Amino acid sequence: MSRFEQAVDSPLGPLTLVADAVGITALEWRDGRQDGTPVLEQAAAQLAEYFAGKRQDFTVPIRLNCSEFQRTVCAAMSAIPFGETRTYGDLAAQLGVPAQAIGQACGGNPIPILIPCHRVLGANGLGGYSGDGGVETKVWLLRHEGAAGLLI
């Protein structure tokens, strides 16, 4: 299947949305091409609205090329409302799996920000973040969403 890219400027540095003919398949922390497909243009516009504080969720088509378990965890992360957080333990209890498995699935999230793995925290701290900038990026995203009260 074809792979298309759309570079996006963001407050977090250059991002690249990746898509196939069906939907967004990845968000990568790098500069990319400008293939300009409709789904990529829609996703880039929604990201710009998110960073401008005008969007709280994403409606662009997503296509996850991963295990069924990863899809289940991504769905659970996507259900966390804007500005709210859950712990790895919360999602583990919800899905009936160990918290470590949730942490690994969060780290393997192929579409960060659109699938908000930054909203998942450790029981006694922030936990990790696989995007460029690591935990500092996670803190920025949580502050952007107004969830920073828990960080102070």
Automatic annotation (TrEMBL):
Q: Which domain of life is it from?
A: Bacteria
Location in the cell reads: Cytoplasm
Per UniProt, residues of the Methylguanine DNA methyltransferase ribonuclease-like domain are: 8-64
Query: Pfam families in the record, alphabetically?
Result: DNA_binding_1, Methyltransf_1N
Q: Which Gene3D superfamilies match?
A: Methylated DNA-protein cysteine methyltransferase domain (3.30.160.70), Winged helix-like DNA-binding domain superfamily/Winged helix DNA-binding domain (1.10.10.10)
Spell out the GO cellular component terms annotated for this protein, sorted alphabetically and separated by semicolons.
cytoplasm
* GO annotation terms (biological process): DNA alkylation repair; methylation
Which GO molecular function annotations are given, in alphabetical order? Answer: methylated-DNA-[protein]-cysteine S-methyltransferase activity
Q: What is its main location?
A: cytoplasm
Enzyme Commission code: 2.1.1.63
Residue limits of the Methylated-DNA-[protein]-cysteine S-methyltransferase DNA binding domain?
68-147
PROSITE patterns (UniProt xref):
MGMT
PANTHER family cross-referenced by the UniProt entry: METHYLATED-DNA--PROTEIN-CYSTEINE METHYLTRANSFERASE (PTHR10815:SF13)
Miscellaneous notes: This enzyme catalyzes only one turnover and therefore is not strictly catalytic. According to one definition, an enzyme is a biocatalyst that acts repeatedly and over many reaction cycles.
Protein's job = Involved in the cellular defense against the biological effects of O6-methylguanine (O6-MeG) and O4-methylthymine (O4-MeT) in DNA. Repairs the methylated nucleobase in DNA by stoichiometrically transferring the methyl group to a cysteine residue in the enzyme. This is a suicide reaction: the enzyme is irreversibly inactivated.
Query: What's this protein's family per the entry?
Result: Belongs to the MGMT family.
The identity of this protein, by name, is Methylated-DNA--protein-cysteine methyltransferase
